């Protein structure tokens, strides 16, 4: 069946939440079902929606960032604002995943996510983006004590849609953090964000093998959240327009499951620096490692 172009969704807000809201199964006339009746909260949410549509991410952060007891919908909007401020386009991510599924493409999630941010970034710019994505994850419930034990116990709070959004953002955080770790370990400045860029920078230094001395902070927590996001795809209430929603579910499941498998994460073990180095070496020099 021929796909409908995802670019037709239009606004940035739909770009950030397209798959989440589509999977939610809401009709076009009631995308924000479940919002509390309180008029003040409704006004904040509507204003946040408008600001996301116009790309005014700082306004969303100013409106929602200092409040406590946010609803799931408010948390998702606030997290989307941090991701938008970091410069990430979720619609492009879904488009690239779809291309892999259509054939003729076999781009790893590492390159897709890194490439959306550009070929290279200064250390300060990359560190700032990592911090913004980390803030989005905090809004969505990450960063608390015993993240992994709560995931194992299936007590990680949030709706299936929130868990999926958190999983996507955790993959972004993981891949940017890995690029930052490589740049710092081998003094690659500006820091390349794709495997081809990393290879060229290392080749110029006569390096043909990555051996990281340590993991990026929080990498295993990120991987747990990616897995939890994939698990949320099977939620029984995630139904809707099959042609778009099922295809996107399958694309995300395929790409993130492959990423977790390739990096050596199974849900029953920790990834260590050797696992990560092996993953990167195979990506960068597939004919050697």
Description:
With 289 residues, this protein is mainly alpha-helical. It has a domain at 89-284. Helix content is 63%, strand content 1%. The protein is built from 13 helices and two strands; from the N terminus they run H-H-H-H-H-H-E-H-H-H-E-H-H-H-H. The protein has a two-stranded antiparallel ribbon with strand order 1-2. Helix 1 packs across helix 9 and helix 2 (39-53) runs antiparallel to helix 3. The protein is globular, with a radius of gyration of 19 Å. Mean pLDDT is 82; it is low at 1-16, 22-37 and 236-244.
Can you summarize this structure?
This protein is an all-alpha fold.
Fold blueprint:
Blueprint: H1 12-24, H2 39-53, H3 57-64, H4 72-86, H5 90-102, H6 109-117, E1 120-121, H7 123-139, H8 147-152, H9 160-186, E2 191-192, H10 195-204, H11 219-232, H12 242-263, H13 273-284
Helix pairs in contact: 1-4, 1-5, 1-9, 2-3, 2-4, 3-4, 4-7, 5-6, 5-12, 7-9, 9-11, 11-12
């Amino acid at each position: 069946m021929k796909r409908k172009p995802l670019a037709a969704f239009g606004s940035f807000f739909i770009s950030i939440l397209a798959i989440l809201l589509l999977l939610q199964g809401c009709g076009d006339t009631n995308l924000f079902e479940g919002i509390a009746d309180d008029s003040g909260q409704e006004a904040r949410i509507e204003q946040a929606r408008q600001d996301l549509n116009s790309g005014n991410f700082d306004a969303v952060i100013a409106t929602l960032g200092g409040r406590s007891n946010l609803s799931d919908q408010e948390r998702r909007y606030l997290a989307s604002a941090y991701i938008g401020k970091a410069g990430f386009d979720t619609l492009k991510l879904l488009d690239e995943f779809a291309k892999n599924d259509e054939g003729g493409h076999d781009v790893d999630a590492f390159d897709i996510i890194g490439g959306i941010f550009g070929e290279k970034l200064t250390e300060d710019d990359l560190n700032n983006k990592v911090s913004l994505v980390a803030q989005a994850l905090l809004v969505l419930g990450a960063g608390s004590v015993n993240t992994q034990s709560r995931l194992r116990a299936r007590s990680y709070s949030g709706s299936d849609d929130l868990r999926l959004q958190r999983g996507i953002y955790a993959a972004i955080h993981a891949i940017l953090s890995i690029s930052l770790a490589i740049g710092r370990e081998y003094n690659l400045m500006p820091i390349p964000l794709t495997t081809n860029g990393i290879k060229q920078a290392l080749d110029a230094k006569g390096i043909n093998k990555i051996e990281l001395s340590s993991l990026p902070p929080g990498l295993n927590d990120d991987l747990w959240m990616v897995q939890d996001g994939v698990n949320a795809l099977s939620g029984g209430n995630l139904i809707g327009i099959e042609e778009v929603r099922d295809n996107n579910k399958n694309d995300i499941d395929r790409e993130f499951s492959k990423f977790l498998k390739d990096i050596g994460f199974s849900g029953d073990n920790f990834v260590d620096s050797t696992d990560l180095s092996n993953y990167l070496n195979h990506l960068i020099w597939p004919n050697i490692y």
